[in-house]
Amino acid sequence: MRAFAVLAMLAAGLAGARYGAAASDEFLLLRLDGSYVKWGTPRLGTPAQVRFAFISEPMGFPGAINCGAMVPIEPLLDASRIERERFHQEVAAAFGLWEAAAGVRFLESADTGVADILIGAQANPRGFAFTNVDHDRAGLTPVSARPAQVRRIEKSLICLNPTKLWKIGFDGNLDVYDVRYTIAHEVGHAIGLDHPSPSGELMSFRYTEDFRALQPGDIAGAVALYGETGAASAGASAKSSAGAGSAVALH
Question: pTM for the complete prediction?
Answer without folding.
Answer: 0.84
